[in-house]
Amino acid sequence: MQPFNTAQLKCVIIDDDQLSIDILGNFIARNNQLITIATYTDPIDGILAIREISDLDILFLDIGMEVSGLDVAKVIRDHVRYLIFVTGHEKYALDAFAVYCDKFIVKPVTYEKINSAIIDIIMRDSR
After folding, report:
1. What are phi and psi of 125, to 5 degrees?
2. pLDDT tens-digit profile, the chain (127 residues)
3. Per the CB 3.0–4.6 Å rule, which of 19, 23, 43, 83 could disulfide with 101?
4. CB 61 within 8 A of CB 14
5. pTM given for the model
């Protein structure tokens, strides 16, 4: 019998608030199916790096930054398997889905919100 694929999903976080990155990174670290490979407080640095990563699974992206996360998503959406917005700006939900995000999480972030989003993505992918 073949075991399930236990490869971790590679994640990147882009958020201009380091505390938000730290909190989200801690929640990701609690999930053995995820690994954070990079974080960026500068969206431009994040864009440039993501374009060089060939197999990025999940991008956790804030919206309210100097360069809007919506604009970042438009540029790099084809370079990420799943896009999850994590933002305090609930009013941008429709705009987020217009750039084909997979999940939209409103801050404050909790482990339950992150875990639920990941379970939904994994379940959808396994169908």
Report:
1. -70, -25
2. 333 445 789 999 999 999 999 999 999 999 988 999 999 999 999 999 999 998 999 999 999 999 999 999 999 999 999 999 999 999 999 999 999 999 999 999 999 999 999 999 888 877 6
3. 83
4. yes
5. 0.92
